[in-house]
Amino acid sequence: MTSIQTDWEGHYLDGQTAARQRVSIRLMRLGLHVTTERGATLWWPYEEIRQTQGFYSGEQVRLERGGEFSEALLVSDTSFLTQLHQIAPELATRFHKPAHRRRRARLVLIAALASMGVLAVLYLWGIPALAAFVASRVPVSWEERLGRSIVTHLVPPAMRCTDKTRTRVIDEIITVLTASLPTSPFTIRVIVVNDSTINAFAVPGGYIVLYRGLLEKTQTAEELAGVLAHELQHIFKHHVTQALIQHVSTGLLLAAITGDTSRATAYGLESARLLGILRYSRQSEEEADAAGMRMLLESGIDPKGMIAFYELLTKSTSETSSILKYLSTHPSTGDRIKNLKSLVEQSQPKSVKLLKGYDWSNIKKICQTTSSLN
Amino acid sequence: MVIFSMKCPKCGLIQMLGATCKACGASVPNPETHSAQMPSQSTGRTASLSQPPSPTIQGKPPQTGQESSQTRQLSFHGTGGSLYGIYIVNIFLIIITLGIYSFWARVRVREFFMSQTEFAGDRFAYHGSGKELFIGFLKAMLVFGVPIGVLNAIPDLLDIPEWVKIVVGLLSFVVTMMLIPFATVATRRYRLSRSSWRGIRFTFRGLVWDFIKLFLGGSFLTTVTLGLYYPFFATRKYAFLASHSYFGNEKFSFDGEGKDLFGSFVLAILLTIPTLGLYWFWFMAKKHRYLWDHTSFATSRFLSTVTGDRLLLLKLGNLLLLIVTIGLGWSWIRVRTARFYLGCLSSQGPLDLAGIEQEAQLATATGEGLASFFDLDAGFDLG
Fold it and tell me: Which domain holds residue A227?
């Protein structure tokens, strides 16, 4: 039978001065019996003691008792705790057991794996699902307000092409496209930017920003209709709002993990302004493709225009990379074109010529009355 | 155990019994004994000290050999592995509590760093709680965060005339500039009040308004001189923060001046391009050494042996570790850094530690919440 060491050497701090008194401590069944070097005795019942240090190897054991400015007992040997557990097993549960350090390491490993799992689930499924759920329930007036401020920020009035007759032509295309829909809560507004970039994007609340560069690349009205249909679907399905929520949530998640709260608030404010990262998930893009194509078919517009335009844009030529910009956020645009083609084959396109009698090349002059950017 | 401490009715400082308050000078007519300690009068098993503690008020207890030794080294005992374990558990709990646990997580890390720091044979202790940080954060958000956020967002969300936007922007800037020094002082006061060594708490007694003036003036001068004022500004800030810090009833003091650093600062600027910026490590080391060497506590003075080359090696090593472990080695980096700085720091000269008495304040954590809003790290400077 191993002998239990009941008497230990330690130090005592009275919480009133920084003097350190040598004491001897006797482990008893209900508490510690402490004798100071001056001969005074103290009684510390286990229930009143908290252990605040001594959880790591080489660390002295520190037991505290009392309120704000507590007294403390210091013992440098952690086998003191092991003995305590042997002498008073039921009351000693509040104290660390050095033997459990192995178990602690294993728990940490489990926690690590579990964290990674939970993070992965959150990032890959949880946040997107939450974003989709919330995005579809955001009031239209909020989206409109957000969209208005974004558009004012990104496309100041000086950069917009406001040729009345030609913008009316584009609006007519929109009317044809949305004719097949029941009442939509959105007021669609197309803004043409005097910039040679080949790009177009949707902004929450019903705004579509169209770059002159893209407009100039289209050969027929049907091609533009394809682009507009795609962007309209981004608006109707709240893809931009969803992307924003996802962006903010991911940022918040990262900030919470690293404990960096100032970034969290910065994210909240900044994301509302920073729509340069209009990056949709691949799923959103495919949804917009399919729904946009359906919209074309239902409106009786020739779907070949949309496909032809996509093919034009994917042809990597020696031209600037801005061509790729419109379709560039995702690879496998070949797949997207294939999907579009199969959609067309499945239906029976009954096409009516859009804007009969209108010379489409005329539209390219839409920006001639505004100051050019480049 | 019988208590011989009292709480000042005016400024709240908890100190040994006396007729007047040591901090604000208010007279304490009938000092009540402080009832923070748990009464240990249960079932007559209490033994009062056979010798009443009055010697600790009126005279100094006998010095042991250790107390009067001339060098007291600081050291850091923590390992990267232990800290890593803490981080992992923290991350896990933060995720499943959707971020709420982050306050308690921060406390755990701070406890670790303070408990693993040793000075003159004893370790420091941290007494803060996650709940305090959480409440402080909420208060800071409510009182400061929301108004500032609104001030920042107004220009974008509303359609108002340009000049109003400018005024709002300026207002937001001024408020922020005043809140940073406020948060710095409040954080320091909070953290010091929750830190102790041998059971005796630290306190910070500097006044917020004094630091706001210092900060605003210094920032202005630094901007106007295109940065040349910086060594003076940094020194004055450190002087304020150090010289108003107390351990128990004894004060820290600082006797350095900005002009002593000015030469090295200008040299560092001039040598930036020729040495590809490496000379800044030597300047940072010199600044660290200078500030500590001119900090004293009671009858002792601090000494730092940080040098530019070793600092550079430390940072390079950390960078290498970061890259090789793809960021996972963060805990080892923090431990290495703490071990380096603390290992270079010591307290020199005679120092009667045993005679230092408890004088403490219970500050709130609102400033802490505000500081994290501004991403400040007014860390406990003894580490």
Answer: 139-367
Tell me which chain A residues have a C-beta less than 8 angstroms from the C-beta of B123: 53, 59-60, 62
Residue in A with minimal Cα distance to B4: A16
How far is Cα B3 from Cα A186, in angstroms, rounded to an integer? 73
Residues 6+ apart with CB under 8 A from B361: B11, B12, B13, B14, B189, B193, B201, B203
Q: What is the pTM of this model?
A: 0.70
Is B183 at the interface with chain A, CB within 8 A? no
SS3 A363: helix
Q: A interface mutation test: which of B2, B13, B37 has the most A CBs within 10 A?
A: B37
Please report the pLDDT score of residue A326 as a whole number. 56
Residue A252 in contact with partner chain B when CB distance is under 8 A:
yes
| Buried b / exposed e along A278-309 (16+ C-beta atoms within 10 A) | bebbeebbbbbbbbbbbbbbebebbbbbbbbb
The interface predicted TM-score of the complex, written ipTM, equals 0.72
Q: Which pLDDT band holds residue B336 (cuts at 50, 70, 90)?
A: very high
- Domain membership of residue A374 (yes or no) is no
Whether residue B88 and residue A112 make contact (CB cut-off 8 A), yes or no, is yes
Q: In what order do the strands lie in the sheet with A200-203?
A: A189-193, A207-211, A200-203
Total number of domains in chain A: 3
Residue A372 lies inside a defined structural domain of this protein: no
Residues A176 and A274 grouped into a single domain? yes
Which residue from B15, B18, B94 is spatially nearest to A114, judged by alpha carbons?
A: B94
Regarding whether A190 and A168 lie in a shared domain, the answer is: yes
Residue A143 and residue A129 share a domain: no
Per-residue CA distances from B137 to A244, B204, B231, B370 (Å): 26, 20, 32, 7
A261 pLDDT higher than 70: no
Q: Are residues A169 and A290 in the same domain?
A: yes
pLDDT above 90: percentage of residues in chain A: 8
pLDDT at residue number B196: 92
Cα Dmax for chain A: 112
Residues A297 and A347 in one domain: yes
Which residue ranges make up each domain of chain B?
A: 1-41, 79-373
Q: What is the mean pLDDT of residues B3-14?
A: 72
Q: Is A263 on the interface with B (CB under 8 A)?
A: yes
The CATH number covering residue A56 comes to 2.30.29.30
A158 and A129 co-located in one domain: no
Q: How far apart are CA A202 and CA A174, in angstroms?
A: 14
Q: What is the mean pLDDT of residues B302-326?
A: 91
Chain A residues with CB under 8 Å of B105 CB are 259
CA distance A327 to chain B (A): 30
The answer to whether position A300 is within a domain reads yes
Closest CB from A14, A70, A269 relative to B152 = A269
- Are residues A225 and A191 located together in one domain of the fold? yes
The enclosing H or E element of A314 equals: helix A304-314
Nearest to A118 among B95, B123, B153 (CB): B95
Identify the DSSP state of A152: H
Are A115 and A187 contained in the same domain?
Answer: no
CB contact under 8 A, B92 and A114: yes
The answer to whether B344 and B305 are in contact (CB under 8 A) is yes
The residue with greater pLDDT, B42 or B80, is B80
Residue B27 is classified by DSSP as B
> What's the rounded mean pLDDT across residues A301-324?
67
